[in-house]
Specification:
Radius of gyration: 20 Å
Bound molecules: 4'-deoxy-4'-aminopyridoxal-5'-phosphate
Shape: globular
Order of helices and strands: EEHEHEHEHEHEHEEHHEHH
Number of helices: 10
Amino acid sequence: MILDSILDGVGGTPIVRLSRLFRDSRCEVMAKMELCNPGGSVKDRPARYIVERGLADGSIPSDAHIVESSSGNLAIALAMVCRLRGLRFTAVVDPKISPTNLEIIRCYGGNIELVTEKDRQGGYLETRIERVKQLLRERPGTVWINQYANERNWQSHYHGEGEEILRDLDRPVDYLVLGVSTSGTLHGIARRLRESWPGLKVVAVDAAGSVLFGAPPCPRELPGIGASRVPELLRREEVGEVIHIDDYESAVACRELVDREGIFAGGSSGSVIAAIQRLCARLSDAARILTILPDRGERYLDTVYNDEWLSRMRDRHLARNPERSLDLTVGQAA
Ligand code: PMP
């Protein structure tokens, strides 16, 4: 197959049975490899869909300047899509951005707008949104993607992974287990699958310390899942259950994933694997479980795959969960 452009390589990702990692479980666990997308993550899907639909219906003029508050996968994906579509792109980021992501956005030709002032909560979220609004006022022709409220975000996953899963699987799964930040991936896939599989149980995986499902905020380090504000897109009533996973648990599961399956994935992939391990341990009947692995491991060499970082996260984990210290010691020895 010869593609017209790299954007035609977005989607069509394979599903892998994780039979080595879950060998001792009665559950069948399958993972759709969104990390195979050309920009390196699941965010290629909304970036491409939102820009192409916007160009087609005129809501994004062909000479637009795209702006988004993102320092991670969406910014990288938008930088790639804008390059191909001849649009300018500016990522509004804060000092917490990883040096690797900053360089990747620059390599794709994206502009960086760095905010340095903290907001009233002590974070940068409000300052970043203020800067986006300032750019919209100052530069005519600027269009804000606004991933937390943009309906095309979840629609990209509905028509993308949702359609592909129904095409590739011959029978329903019992559980869909997905990491959540904007909730676009979860809602898009769940809404499409439920049309064909009404009995599907939807499990959201959130970062410990994220406020998405009403828990109190606390420090967390891994980007990808979780949020410090509740997205306009999130409909909690469509989620059957929420599992919170902390940075340490995510990293341990990432290392198991590469060790047992040879899949080198990012932090939120570890989060969903850790959540599925917890779910399987609790289920009395055999179940079929589907997840997605959102991005690759290279962007996490300084965190998930760094031993010094892992040991800091382990100390934090033990301090917050003193009752679990025994389990972890046993688990690590095994
Ligand atoms: N995992 C990773 C690595 C991500 O970058 C994102 C998007 N921030 C997610 C999971 C969650 O996706 P969504 O925003 O669609 O909820």
